[in-house]
Design brief:
The chain has a five-stranded antiparallel beta sheet with strand order 4-5-13-9-10. A four-stranded antiparallel beta sheet has the order 15-18-17-16. The chain has 245 residues and is of the alpha+beta class. Helix 1 packs antiparallel against helix 3. The longest helix has 19 residues. The protein folds into two domains: 157 residues, Uridine Diphospho-n-acetylenolpyruvylglucosamine Reductase, domain 3 (2-Layer Sandwich), CATH 3.30.465; 79 residues, Uridine Diphospho-n-acetylenolpyruvylglucosamine Reductase, domain 1. The chain has five helices and 19 strands. The two termini are 17 Å apart.
Length: 245
């Protein structure tokens, strides 16, 4: 079976997935702010959209998650893949993760028992995240809202938010930017079928209309080959490809 939050970073192949998809939806979208001796914290259902998570913090004047603004995922998905932007990662704010193990046991992971990497975590595949506890700090509403607007503005200027995509296609190699490498390789705006390497940000492959997964995957392989030829760097996928090829 496949556990899905918003599916924002998934590419499902045209031949489909031969199994059961477990979608963490509205029943897991609550959130509440509390305080204990460790400080302020927010408990968010795994299906809570990141947009609601960030706007809720902004409205209440709680800081720590502004960098997630405009990431089209869920709280659970952000933890599972350690979503991040602008030099920050979800792992920075995680206190606990409440989940159902593949064996059917309710488990609680504290931060010290989890290992996070660049756009990944060691949460076992098949684990169903139910809720996440984030550490937050009290701040002025105006300051939080201003930071959210700032990050949102950066995304609107730098990313093709008005077009369908699965987000950043490749992880950034150490000390480099995947989009820059793809652009230098001369592939910005390259089309195969209905898929195109974005002319706004080359680490996005957008659907210009009627694109299939094969179109996207052919562009993925082309980008990997051209970047390796030009820079000697092997690009690693950030999006997750699921299904029969």
């Amino acid at each position: 079976y496949l556990v899905i939050g918003n599916g924002s970073n998934l590419l499902i192949t045209d031949r489909g997935f031969d199994g059961v998809a477990v979608v963490i939806g509205r029943g897991f979208s609550g959130f509440a702010f509390e305080e204990d001796p460790k400080g302020l914290f927010l408990t968010a259902g795994a299906g809570l959209p990141i947009s609601s998570l960030v706007s809720g913090c902004s409205a209440e004047g709680f800081s720590g998650l502004e960098f997630l603004a405009w990431i089209p995922g869920t709280a659970g998905g952000a933890v599972a893949m350690n979503a991040g932007a602008f030099g920050h990662e979800t792992a920075e704010a995680v206190r606990e993760v409440h989940a159902l193990s593949p064996g059917g046991d309710l488990v609680v992971f504290d931060k010290s028992s989890l290992s996070f990497g660049y756009r990944c975590s060691d949460i076992t595949p098949g684990t169903v995240i139910a809720s996440v506890v984030f550490d937050v700090k009290r701040a002025r509403h105006e300051d939080v809202a201003g930071a959210v607007a700032h990050y949102g503005g950066l995304r609107r200027r730098r990313q093709p938010l008005g077009m369908r995509s699965a987000g950043s296609v490749f992880k950034n190699p150490p000390g480099r930017y995947a989009g820059e490498l793809i652009e230098v390789a001369g592939l910005k705006g390259k089309r195969i079928g209905g898929a195109m390497i974005s002319d706004v940000h080359a680490n996005f492959i957008v659907n210009t209309g009627g694109a299939g997964s094969d179109d996207v995957l052919r562009l993925v392989e082309l980008a990997k080959r051209k970047v390796y030829q030009a820079a000697g760097i092997e690009l690693e996928l950030e999006i997750r490809v699921v299904g029969e090829r």
